[in-house]
């Protein structure tokens, strides 16, 4: 049997790498997308069948070109995980309005470009999954999040629109909200006094997205929330 193909955007040292490892472990050939090829080189060597593709998902032409290369090299993707994220924090009076626009291009328009390019083949096949990683900014606007939260909220609504349109055609779309600080080195350094249970493990996020991607059709999820057991919510 031909190995299925999974596309993961925003492959970095945290969730993106964990997702790539989980889907590779599950028998997928994984297309690793990030803007910087150097971030992908080690993971490409680590995972058999994985291949790196430098790509800025906010650029529709780059998305189209990269999709062509993936189809040529690996085959037609059956799973897309849009994990790429752009963020900025500060008062709405302080942030550069162009920063909000840039974040929107990556978080929301990137999802649109990817879905437009990859979903038609999934529909034709009658199966597939489009998964999006988000956080609580998709659900609420807090002070100093004006440059970020609007883009994640728009991303979640776009994903819901995709889910309602693509679901009846056999393509599962889901949005995962991670209500926690992800356990990566920079976060550990910033929150030095926090105990282990304060953080959410990238591998645990990847396990949940693997589960969602392979849910039985009679019980698909759209809104998925994960948080550490000790999180105050």
Structure described in brief:
The protein is built from seven helices and nine strands. It is of the alpha/beta class. The strands form two sheets. A seven-stranded parallel sheet has the order 3-2-1-4-5-6-9, sandwiched between helices. Strands 7-8 form a two-stranded parallel sheet.
How would you describe the overall organization of this protein?
By secondary structure, this protein is α/β, with parallel strands linked by helices. The chain has one domain (5-179, 205-226): Rossmann fold, CATH 3.40.50. Helix content is 42%, strand content 19%. It contains seven helices and nine strands. It has helices spanning 15-25, 38-46, 60-73, 97-125, 149-166, 185-190, 202-213, and strands spanning 5-8, 29-34, 51-54, 77-82, 128-135, 171-178, 181-182, 199-200, 223-226. The strands form two sheets. A seven-stranded parallel β-sheet has the order 3-2-1-4-5-6-9, with helices on both faces. Strands 7-8 form a two-stranded parallel ribbon. Strand 2 (29-34), helix 2 and strand 3 form a beta-alpha-beta unit.
Give me some keywords for this one:
42% helix, globular, 19% strand, 233 residues, alpha/beta, Rossmann fold, 7 helices, 7-stranded parallel β-sheet, two-stranded parallel ribbon
Instruction: Estimate the helix proportion, in percent.
Output: 40-55%
How does the major sheet shape up? 7 strands, parallel
Number of structurally distinct domains = 1
At the fold tier of CATH, the topology name is Rossmann fold
> Could you give the order of the helices and strands?
EHEHEHEHEHEEHEHE
* Unreliable sequence segments: none
Strand order of the largest sheet: 3-2-1-4-5-6-9
Instruction: Tell the overall outline.
Output: globular
Count of alpha and pi helical runs: 7
Looking at the overall shape, the CATH architecture is 3-Layer(aba) Sandwich
Looking at how many chains there are and whether they match, the oligomeric state comes to: single chain
CATH C-level category: Alpha Beta
Structural class: alpha/beta
Q: What fraction strand? A: 15-25%
Average pLDDT works out at: 94
State Rg.
17 Å
End-to-end Cα distance, whole Å, is: 45 Å
The total of beta strands comes to 9
Write out the CATH superfamily name.
Answer: NAD(P)-binding Rossmann-like Domain
């Amino acid at each position: 049997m031909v190995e299925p193909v999974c596309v993961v955007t925003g492959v970095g040292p945290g969730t993106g790498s964990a997702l790539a490892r989980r889907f590779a472990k599950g028998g997928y050939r994984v297309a690793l997308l990030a803007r910087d090829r150097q971030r992908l080189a080690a993971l490409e060597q680590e995972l058999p069948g994985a291949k790196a593709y430098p790509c800025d998902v906010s650029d529709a032409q780059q998305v189209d070109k990269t999709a062509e290369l993936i189809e040529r090299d690996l085959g037609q993707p059956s799973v897309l995980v849009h994990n790429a994220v752009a963020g900025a924090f500060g008062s709405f009076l302080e942030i550069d309005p162009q920063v909000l626009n840039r974040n929107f291009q990556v978080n929301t328009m990137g999802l649109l470009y990817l879905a437009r390019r990859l979903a038609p083949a999934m529909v034709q096949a009658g199966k597939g999954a489009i998964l999006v990683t988000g956080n609580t900014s998709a659900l609420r606007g807090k002070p100093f999040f004006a440059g970020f939260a609007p883009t994640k909220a728009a991303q979640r609504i776009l994903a819901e629109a995709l889910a309602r349109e693509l679901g009846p055609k056999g393509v599962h779309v889901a949005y995962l909200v991670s209500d926690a600080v992800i356990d990566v080195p920079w976060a550990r350094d910033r929150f030095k006094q926090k105990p282990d249970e304060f953080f959410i493990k990238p591998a645990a996020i990847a396990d949940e997205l693997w589960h969602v991607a392979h849910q039985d059709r009679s019980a698909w999820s759209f809104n998925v929330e994960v948080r550490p057991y000790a999180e105050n919510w």
